[in-house]
Amino acid sequence: MANSRSNALKQVQNRRPIAPPDRPHKTSEIFAANVFTDEAMQQYLPKDVYKKLQRAIDQGHTVDRDIAESVASGIKNWAIEKGATHYTHWFQPLTGLTAEKHDAFLTIKDGQPLEVFSGENLAQQEPDASSLPSGGIRNTFEARGYTAWDPSSPAFIFENNYGKTLCIPTIFVSYTGEALDFKAPLLKSIEALNDAAVAVCKFFDRNVNRVTPTLGVEQEYFLVDRAFMDLRPDLGLTGRTVIGAPPARGQQLDDHYFGSISERVFAFMTELELESYKLGIPVTTRHNEVAPSQFECAPLFEEQNVAVDHNLLFMDLLDRVARKHQFRVLLHEKPYAGINGSGKHNNWSMATDTGKNLLSPGSAPKENLQFLTFFINTIKAVYEYADLLRAAIATAGNDHRLGANEAPPAIISVFIGSQLSKVLDEIEKPSRKKNKDTPKSYIRLGIPKVPEILLDNTDRNRTSPFAFTGNKFEFRAVGSSDNTAGPMLVLNAIVSNQLREFKKTVDRKVVRGKKKEVAILEVLRAYVKDSKAIRFEGNGYSKEWEEEAAERGLSNVKQTPRALDAYVAEEAVKLFSKLDIFGPTESHARHEIRLEQYSTKINIEARLMEEMLSVYVIPASVSYLTQLGESVEALQDIDAPKASYQTQMELIEEVSEALGQAHRSGKELTKALEVGEALADARDQAIHYGDVVVPIMAQVREAADKLEFLVADDLWPLPKYREMLFMR
Ligand code: ADP
Ligand code: MG
After folding, report:
1. Which residues contact 507 (CB under 8 A, 6 or more apart)?
2. Ligand 1 centroid to 343 CA: how many Å?
3. Protein residue with least CA distance to atom 11, ligand 1
4. Which of 43, 366, 707, 715 gives the lowest tally of CB atoms within 10 Å of its CB?
5. Treating both helix axes as pointing N-terminal to C-terminal, what angle do 485-511 and 304-324 enclose, rounded to 10 degrees?
6. How close is the Cα of 276 to the center of ligand 2, in Å?
7. What is the pLDDT of residues 312-360, one digit of tens each?
């Protein structure tokens, strides 16, 4: 066997679980130990400052300058007691990752060393972020970017074996006010949703003063041993195998899902959880996923802004902790061809400050009507802006997953289950026959009764991209490596827009003398009728659904470059600017950045493929041909019967054919890349990559994978799928 590969295999076979650090008897003892929690605030801030800060946080306001100094001093004292030496503004640039620039607390004043962290340091920082993407915003406006504190997400201390850093969650904006990150627009969308939802809540309950979106992100990921990763430049640089033949035994047996977790992985998970708890990330479930070496972890849901931050931190922890355990984590949407990819299921709902989940059905008729209002408005919003929602999850990685019979298709639809389908049907066509189970109070208002416990809770449709699961919607089509703020801000925006629309229409009817409940029900009835096409209860993976969806007029855009068009379609640009989330410049800037990211990703993968072809695949195949040739020659030399080298002759032909195909496709790829790299327009370029480069890459891969099957195992230098996926 190729030496390096056999060494890697030996290393992996000899690995033992690495014991995680000691864990306290009770998890609650360390939970949020590294977070500036409410409790810490009370302890480290003067009473009046604490109160003012709390008020700002609860109401989503900015913090007054006059308390910033005092808050900063409290945070500093807390952080220094915990052992932090540096601080950083922690922000979410459009790269999709998080960014930080550390500064020491240390300063020298009048010749004396001392620790300083001022109100100014807390509130604002000016990172030299000129290399972060801005979609041309910074050039156009010649403005620098600055970061500003987001008090609604608590400060925390990030620690590793070598030091501790105080992290202040911040937004990142240009001096002219354009957002250069994910957090700023997310916060604006949360405010827009709050305004619209509170106004609608007032129809039912005057006491509601704040509505916050809630989010629980289930995160899927793969683990691979670092020894294998080191031998696979594609995994290392792109997070996915650009070549590699799926094993005969893939996930057909489905024996990995919920299977027992190996000890080595268990040790890793234990440490991962420990680190998460310290940061206040409430991870609670862990299990194997469908594919071999694939896992999932889910936290308890939280306020959306915090949940997004926590998911980003969690991805960071995944990477760091995996390294300590001699693993590498793969967050790519499709690390292995022919094996299920990874997603992030975004469980989304809305909660009031009176403690009610607006997507949870209640028992009284009024509560029911409130539930139906938010439920139906969400469905209508998804119907109206399905293309925008599709655009929100479009990335080069996710293209491999959506519509590949393993994840929801690229068609956006909503699954609600049979019980709620019946309820909506009843709203649409109220039956004259009285149902004897329906209480009088309902009949009088004409509100259909929603069962309090929804049976569909268990009878899930896992093929739907947007499924109602009892008391929340689960947006399942989000990519595993994405910053969820992107899709979440779109969801908040379209629902808030829809709720505004709803409120206006109901108000108009009420002004004209309609009873409020009747008006609400009338509008809901119209929405149920209008948005019917988006509801689909069947198998989303099936060919029939693609056909039916086309008949229903639903879009099915399979590749990112064109899916992104919806982001800058007139309705979308208007929507964002009406809700004060993005101005037109920002919408276009983001579109541009995402096109560029797509092209860059494909370009890197393709260039790597070219290289791997010429430095691994072709040489290994040529060596094998040589071996075969030498065997034939040797047999001929001793006048062996023809039959003794017949097979070798046939193999020479097969290998040569696949080799020729690989080589020719490789050349074609090079040409296509040259054309692509020369294109100046971002959209033209991305479309070229999607339409031309991606199909050629598939050809190269086919030939390379054929060779992997043909070439003698001991000559093949790259770790194979079965090794990477099944080694423990
Ligand atoms: P499954 O794998 O069956 O989809 P999980 O239990 O793994 O379910 O994940 C469900 C997720 O939904 C959890 O993160 C949970 O906290 C979250 N969730 C539950 N209720 C709400 C809610 N009201 N709003 C947002 N997320 C919620
Ligand atoms: Mg789920």
Report:
1. none
2. 15
3. 216
4. 43
5. 170
6. 20
7. 999 999 999 999 999 999 999 999 998 889 999 999 999 999 999 999 9
For residue 145, list its beta bridge partners: 174
Helix (H) or strand (E) holding 610, with range, is: helix 584-612
Please report which residue ranges of 224-361 form alpha helices under DSSP H: 226-230, 233-238, 263-278, 304-324
For the entire predicted model, the pTM comes to 0.95
Q: Which of 472, 488, 492, 495 to mutate to test the pocket of ligand 1 (most atoms within 8 A of CB)?
A: 472
For 392-439, write each residue's pLDDT tens digit: 999 999 999 986 666 677 899 999 998 899 999 999 987 766 566 666
Pick from 722, 727, 718: nearest CA to 2: 718
CA 708 to centroid of ligand 1, rounded, Å? 42
Q: Which two tokens stand for residue 230?
A: 């080191």
Neighbours of 329 (CB within 10 A): 23
Ligand 1 atom nearest to CA at 217: 14
Ligand 1 touching residue 441 (CB < 6 A): no
Distances (CA, A) of 703 to 245, 622, 649: 10, 14, 20
**536/362 Cα distance (integer angstroms):** 25
Least distant ligand from the CA of 464: 2
Q: Is the CB of 299 inside a 6 Å radius of any atom of ligand 1?
A: yes
* DSSP SS3 for 37: coil
Nearest CA to ligand 1 atom 13: 216
Q: Measured in angstroms, how far is the CA atom of residue 348 from the centroid of ligand 1?
A: 8
Element (H, E) at 218: strand 211-225
Calculate Rg over the CA atoms of the chain: 28
- pLDDT tens digit string along 492-522? 999 999 999 999 999 999 999 999 999 999 9
H or E element in which residue 122 lies = helix 119-123
Q: What is the distance in A from the centroid of ligand 1 to the CA of 264?
A: 27
Atom number in ligand 1 closest to CA 357 = 23
Q: Which residue has the tokens 């995680």?
A: 20
Residue found under tokens 């690495």: 18
